[in-house]
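Bumping with the actual sequence this time:
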Amino acid sequence: MSKRPCHVLVLCTGNSVRSIMGEALLNHLGRGRFHAFSAGSHPRGAVHPLALTLLEQHGLPTADLRSKSWDEFSRPDSPAMDLVITVCDAAANEVCPVWSGVPVQVHWGLPDPARVRGSEAEQRQAFQGAYERLEARIKRLVALDDECFDSRELADELLRIHRDAAA
């Protein structure tokens, strides 16, 4: 019998851009080893159109993506999470959701591209930058040995991924 996929919850405040991209990227790049979900503490109720366009341009499915509250994942029938990744940007004074009772939590803060004001090209560039940063981190996550997921070493590896990406 095969081991179930690693369940990952990607959280941010609005669940309209960064956490949505994280969910889509991890489900795609994780190739069945990961089952990613996303949510927000104060969901906007809709996925940002530029996020959907960008994901589609990269060949990622978007049909099932939706902005939702993290309350959906605190119900008794919710899947048990192995990993929670927050992607809100503390430097922008966003309220990062706090998730208790999970084995591993990591903060991969990214600026919110939806806050960028300027030309359409500048906005698209901000979305692309956030996508690329998430993609680089997630590629490193999915490259980790499965044995790492059975230990606390995972938290250290995830922090290393974040620090390396920020450098």
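The tokens above came from a reply further down the thread. The CA atoms of residues 35 and 62 lie 15 Å apart.
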